[in-house]
Design goal:
single chain, TIM Barrel, 12 helices
Length: 316
Amino acid sequence: MTYRCNFRCRFCHYWSEPLGAKPEPSAAYYAEAARKLAGLGTLMISLAGGEPLLRNDVPDLVEAIGRYHFPFLTTNGWFVTPDLAADLMRAGLWGSSISIDYADAAQHDARRGSAGAWAQAWRAVEMLSAARVHRFQRVNVLAVLMDDNIDQIEQLLKMAADREAYFMVQCYGFRKIGTNRYAHNNGPVGPRLLKLQKEYPNFLSNPYYLRRFDRYLHGGVPGCRAGRSFFNIDSTGDIAICVEEKAHPVANLHRDGTAIIRRRLATTAKANRCRDCWYNCRGEVECLYKPSSLLEALPTLLLDKGKPPGRDRRLG
């Protein structure tokens, strides 16, 4: 939605993107774009940034997109207020992720480059949780697994459960800033995460996805479905097979028809051999194409009612 951001995260340079200075589409454009994307068979649209809530019309965009899709918002939480949370949920937001990487406030604020970021992020979780108007609407806490926060994951799970929120985790991707400086490098993490996933009902990440964390961290996961199962649209309408390929667009949502978009995505996807990320937008989608992991996801897909069990209902 925008590459503008009020934070200066050390492990992400999207806030310095030149795209942040370019004009952003109107709400009317988003309504037409959502209708056009529905012609491609799209199901979910993730609204991200930068910080998407720097735009003051996000509830209008959610309503327009929600006519055809499940709209999902990822935010740092800084601009969430009770009124905005209520507007977003009433507009039809299917779910939202608030980025919180540490149980320790000082560490989170330092990595995010903004004092008070941690406290406001948790307030945002609480406000969005309280504002839900439909049982299916979910609120997630989303953490980026980095070099120094694996020991804080369990505490984050507990804190999210206390606020009736789910928890998800994804790996740091070196292409964000071109370095592995922040990548986890202290032993295997998959078994630890899978153990927590069994113990905490609000740990939403698919086991298939978690099992491949170590494979990604030590060589990468092959078989990326970017351009086939998911793709990226930037704030100018340029379409690329994934967010890290935004400098190499294959089409433009404003100018190109659905047949051209579909064909160019498919052609580019055939040549894709990238192993450079293991983000949720990749791994959680790819798991749905594996029969075993799809079965593991069915309880969430079919039975989820938005609010997870509290942490006092841990599974043995």
